[in-house]
């Protein structure tokens, strides 16, 4: 049985999404940080996502280099299963996101100051 996200983990997902990370990606990251490695079906169940949502999240995470994928051989016919694992731990991912947001805040503050000067709010 796949464990759903705890209240604390749901809060981490909410905070990550409030800082601008896509909510589905946040759910996948938090679940994988807890489980270590998982197949799509387990991610779908635990994060309460549909298969296309997991696929889109994985596409982004692979592009960012945060997740690696491997194929598991399956008995019988059909597509092989894909298993996913984070390449960074949750602390490293959060630190990276915080750094990006702080840089963004600095740029916004600089733009606001320049705007204030241009319209005469500040001299």
UniProtKB/TrEMBL annotation:
Residue ranges of coiled coil: 91-118
Protein name (Swiss-Prot/TrEMBL): ArsR family transcriptional regulator
Which keywords does the record carry? Coiled coil
**Which superkingdom?**
Archaea
Report the leader peptide range: none
Instruction: Please name the Gene3D superfamilies in this protein's record.
Output: Winged helix-like DNA-binding domain superfamily/Winged helix DNA-binding domain
